[in-house]
């Protein structure tokens, strides 16, 4: 697997080129007001200069895209399907029972299947919020 290298940047202050420096250090300089958002920067082996604010926005957008792609790659657990099947069976049993009694029992027909369906949905959403527990790397013991 190829290692991802952190890009290094040069920035221009009063006709002087400073660098190479990583983007997090540039962000720290920006927060400490040692440089401005319109400070011109360029990647280490590039000749194209751009404002620092533009690159920070681009990096932020890329981070959001990576996070959303990871969230979409996490599949809900198979137990969600089990809750949906239970809800469907409970609904079918409730309808059949109501037909046999010639009366609608809301508890059997709607309420119980709705609880099973809700539990399946909650399980799926909790799985997405945790980022898919099976995708998290195991912690290595310290030596």
From TrEMBL:
Domain of life: Bacteria
Transmembrane spans: 81-104, 110-129
Domain GYF: 9-53
Pfam families in the record: GYF_2
The keyword Transmembrane is annotated on this UniProt entry: yes
Alphabetic keyword roster: Membrane, Transmembrane, Transmembrane helix
Protein name: DUF4339 domain-containing protein
Organism: Akkermansia massiliensis
